[in-house]
């Protein structure tokens, strides 16, 4: 049972699924709020304070992807777990790129869902708050405000780019494996292609490096992962 009251927003249009999730999460000791469509979901996610949002992708009025996008655009860092019936990698990657922290694919077991919820909440609780401001190559970044600049000009970065960069910064001058990035940033264990990580690293290099084709800051450790080098 959960000892501290944690508030979770469930955005799900299917009544039986919505109520079933609510009952099971309340049994586990969580406080639960509900939204039955995308419009209600995005309003609550932006105006109320939650510890976690459980978000169906296929919703009427406003999709889960759009909710995720709007929430992150407002600077809201509440962890988001997507619920999707789609199995294609492109849909999973899209959700993660828009700022989701994890996903579960229908049908899923209650045990799996609870494990993912606990893992995402644990990552948020244990998040290191040191080094909020950092200069990494060309980029000046503040990890608390999720803002980044090059030569005083604002640089647009996705929520996941900030999280990956922060993870590399907190482990600077040490090799970080692709598997560690997948598990600790995305939190899913279905062993997807490491191309997801590589694509994000490529985007970060384009913002940080003088010459992204010949990186000096984020180095590839062949067969393992990456290392962020600081002087």
Give me a quick take on this structure.
With 231 residues, the protein is α/β, with parallel strands linked by helices.
Key structural traits:
231 residues; alpha/beta; Rossmann fold; Arc Repressor Mutant, subunit A; 2 domains; five-stranded parallel β-sheet; 8 helices; elongated
Protein described:
It is a single chain. The chain has 231 residues and is of the alpha/beta class. The chain has two domains: 7-125, Rossmann fold (3-Layer(aba) Sandwich); 133-228, Arc Repressor Mutant, subunit A, CATH 1.10.10. Helices cover 40% and strands 21% of the residues. It has eight helices and twelve strands. The strands form three sheets. The protein has a five-stranded parallel beta sheet, with helices on both faces. Helix 1 (15-27) links the parallel strand 1 and strand 2. Helix 2 packs parallel to helix 3 (64-73) and helix 6 (159-170) packs across helix 8 (195-208). The longest helix is centred in the middle third of the chain and has 16 residues, at 110-125. The termini are far apart.
- How many domain modules? 2
Tally of separate helices: 8
Find the CATH superfamily of the largest domain. Response regulator
Give the overall form: elongated
User: Strand order across the biggest sheet?
Assistant: 2-1-3-4-5
Coarse structural class: alpha/beta
N-end to C-end Cα span: 46 Å
Task: Determine Rg (CA atoms, Å).
Answer: 18 Å
Query: SSE order in H/E notation?
Result: EHEHEHEHEHEEEEHEHHEE
Q: What value does the average pLDDT take?
A: 85
CATH topology of the largest domain: Rossmann fold
The CATH class of the largest domain is identified as: Alpha Beta
Instruction: Catalogue the unreliable spans.
Output: 126-130
- Residue share in helices? 40-55%
Share of residues in strands:
15-25%
Let me know the number of strands. 12
Name of the CATH architecture of the largest domain = 3-Layer(aba) Sandwich
Largest sheet geometry: 5 strands, parallel
